[in-house]
TrEMBL record:
<dbReference type="GO" id="GO:0005789">
    <property type="term" value="C:endoplasmic reticulum membrane"/>
</dbReference>
<dbReference type="InterPro" id="IPR005839">
    <property type="entry name" value="Methylthiotransferase"/>
</dbReference>
<feature type="domain" description="MTTase N-terminal">
    <location>
        <begin position="63"/>
        <end position="171"/>
    </location>
</feature>
<dbReference type="GO" id="GO:1990145">
    <property type="term" value="P:maintenance of translational fidelity"/>
</dbReference>
<keyword id="KW-0004">4Fe-4S</keyword>
<keyword id="KW-0256">Endoplasmic reticulum</keyword>
<dbReference type="InterPro" id="IPR002792">
    <property type="entry name" value="TRAM_dom"/>
</dbReference>
<dbReference type="Pfam" id="PF04055">
    <property type="entry name" value="Radical_SAM"/>
</dbReference>
<dbReference type="GO" id="GO:0005791">
    <property type="term" value="C:rough endoplasmic reticulum"/>
</dbReference>
<dbReference type="InterPro" id="IPR006466">
    <property type="entry name" value="MiaB-like_arc_euk"/>
</dbReference>
<feature type="transmembrane region" description="Helical">
    <location>
        <begin position="554"/>
        <end position="575"/>
    </location>
</feature>
<dbReference type="GO" id="GO:0035598">
    <property type="term" value="F:tRNA (N(6)-L-threonylcarbamoyladenosine(37)-C(2))-methylthiotransferase activity"/>
</dbReference>
<keyword id="KW-0408">Iron</keyword>
<dbReference type="InterPro" id="IPR013848">
    <property type="entry name" value="Methylthiotransferase_N"/>
</dbReference>
<feature type="domain" description="Radical SAM core">
    <location>
        <begin position="199"/>
        <end position="430"/>
    </location>
</feature>
<keyword id="KW-1133">Transmembrane helix</keyword>
<dbReference type="InterPro" id="IPR007197">
    <property type="entry name" value="rSAM"/>
</dbReference>
Length: 576
């Protein structure tokens, strides 16, 4: 391109300004006569903008959470505690999985099918782009499984920190808390018993009296998750029972991996605990004992019989036998023989007339022969257990039984069917037709046609759906029986007795959450210290976090200005 040429020589640039142009001082003077026009500020809109989070932000504590629990009553209690803490913090617990922002999946590791359901639920949650927190025995026992990688996990003894884990997960982080609770090096029973809780059934309180066990059964995966025995102190358990009755509970379930072993690690025993609990049970309310293995109840038989005869304790005990073959029991490392089991059952049947004995049996354990299985069949035929849990053996990864020579799958299935056929060959309740019984009504039947009650022996009795019966002791006449139940007609002139000392909590209401405890709980979780409603407290959290965001923004601007000044100084220095 040809270069431009100038024929005229220019003077200094100041000479270009003509005489007619206004001077700088004139322009400055004219500025003083300019009246600025004030812009009206939409105060309401600005307030809304300050109170509302940015559209791309995530504020924990206001989301919907769906909780699914598999497995035993201990696991169900853990699920209730986690739901209570999350609701107390401000999260909404929903029964609609599709509406939830986060799924809390509380797993069971006892059998393969339960873990399969758990794994499938994780896959479904991922397909629906849900946030996920995993809990229960599966991730605790095997946290390195491939399908658990990258997901948040809360251990069975860390459920008091569920709010922290959920909050970090909602922020997009992966958190894992799998440690043990200890006091001066001694393992504790688990999270505190006074945590907020949402009972699945407001009339029933599930209390875990200890965690873990003293056994080392070769088939058990739960041991890997729950560990060795760790018991709660008696006074804490009694306080929890008292609180439950003050909230309208009329039935308490004691649960653990082995209730019979309770207290051996802290210098006490199960009968001592039971007598303390009986003292605080209101008249008409009932206590149900959980599962106990034969070895740890043998030395307490006399005292246990006295407790089970108490009018406020169900004459019911769950004692797993697993097999009637001593050879199989030895391979299982059950630490008792069939004669020990018979001694326990025979003694209790004699001393506690009418007692219900429930038991468990595993079909097809490695090495079980046809003769071993027939011994088990004979035991069932002899005792005619009214409640019998028949389980086909599943080898669980990492257990000694998984490495043993397995019984063919078809044989296991056939034995399970054969034993089930024996169980269904007798009717345990036919002889009770015509009896008049006192029953405690606590829930609705699965088909919603009846209310479910239990008599003195924890046998299931279906009664008409009269709302005045729920949570009450009712006198009924038994007129029909089935394999697993009886039907009772309320006596016309009988008194309906109310065992609860106060009105039960509403379904979904948080247990133990007074204004004071709410402040203390939120303080521990890092939440606001006000006793506002759930809606207000959520708003407070939004405000707190927005202030934090604004402070972070101010810090970012300050740093940016400092960097700009530094670069400007370097630039000036280079050109000088």
């Amino acid at each position: 391109m040809p270069s431009a040429s100038c024929d005229t020589l220019l003077d200094d640039i100041e000479d270009i300004v003509s005489q007619q142009d206004s001077k700088p001082q004139d322009r400055h003077f004219s500025r003083k006569h300019i009246v600025p026009k004030a812009r009206r500020r939409n105060t309401q809109k600005c307030l809304q903008e300050e109170d509302s989070p940015p559209s791309d932000s995530t504020i924990p504590g206001i989301q919907k959470i769906w909780i699914r629990t598999w497995g035993c009553s201990h696991n169900n209690s853990d699920g209730e505690y986690m739901a209570g803490q999350l609701a107390a913090y401000g999260y909404k617990i929903t029964e609609n999985a599709s509406d939830a922002d986060l799924w809390l999946l509380n797993s069971c590791t006892v059998k393969n099918p339960a873990e399969d359901h758990f794994r499938n639920s994780i896959k479904r949650a991922q397909e629906e782009n849900k946030k996920i927190v995993l809990a229960g025995c599966v991730p605790q026992a095997q946290p390195r499984q491939d399908y658990l990688q990258g997901l948040s996990v809360i251990g069975v003894q860390q459920i008091d920190r569920v709010v922290e884990v959920v909050e970090e997960t909602i922020k997009g982080h992966s958190v894992r808390l799998l440690g043990q609770k200890k006091d001066n090096g001694k393992r504790l029973g688990g999270a505190p018993l006074d945590l907020p809780k949402i009972r699945k059934n407001p009339l029933i309180e599930i209390i875990s009296i200890n965690t873990g066990c003293l056994n080392a059964c070769t088939y058990c995966k739960t041991k890997h998750a729950r560990g060795n025995l760790a018991s709660y102190p008696i006074d804490e358990l009694v306080d929890r029972a008292k609180q439950s009755f003050q909230e309208g509970v009329c039935e308490i379930w004691l649960t653990s991996e082995d209730t019979g072993a309770y207290g051996r690690d802290i210098g006490t025993d199960l009968p001592t605990l039971l007598w303390k609990l009986v003292e605080v049970i209101p008249e008409g309310a009932m206590l149900r004992l959980g599962m106990t293995n034969p070895p740890y109840i043998l030395e307490h038989l006399e005292e246990m019989a006295k407790v089970l005869n108490h009018p406020r304790v169900y004459a019911f005990l769950h004692i797993p036998v697993q097999s009637a073959s001593d050879a199989v029991l030895m391979a299982m490392k059950r630490e008792y023989c069939v004669a020990d089991f018979r001694r326990v059952v025979d003694f209790l049947k004699e001393k506690v007339p009418g007692i219900t004995i429930a038991t468990d049996i595993i079909c097809g354990f490695p090495g079980e022969t046809d003769q071993d299985f027939q011994e088990t069949v004979k035991l069932v035929e002899e005792y005619k257990f009214p409640s019998l849990f028949i389980n086909q053996f599943y080898p669980r990864p990492g257990t000694p039984a998984a490495k043993m020579e397995q019984v063919p799958a078809q044989v296991k299935k056939q034995r399970t069917k054969d034993l089930s056929r024996v169980f269904h060959s007798y009717s345990p309740y036919d002889h009770k037709i015509g009896e008049r019984q006192q029953v405690l009504v606590t829930e609705e039947s699965f088909d919603s046609k009846f209310y479910v009650a239990h008599n003195r022996f924890y046998e299931q009795v279906l009664v008409p759906k009269n709302p005045t019966f729920m949570g009450k002791m009712v006198e009924v006449d038994i007129y029909e029986s089935g394999k697993h139940f009886m039907k009772g007609q309320p006596v016309a002139d009988a008194k309906v007795y109310t065992p609860s000392i106060s009105k039960p909590l509403a379904k979904g209401e948080v247990s133990g959450l007074t204004a004071v405890s709410k402040r203390e709980f939120r303080s521990r979780c890092g939440g606001p210290l006000s006793s506002m409603s759930q809606h207000d407290s959520a708003g407070s959290r939004v405000g707190l976090r927005l202030r934090s965001l604004r402070q972070d923004g101010a810090l970012t601007v300050s740093v940016g200005l400092a960097l700009f000044a530094l670069l400007l100084a370097l630039f000036v220095k280079l050109y000088n």
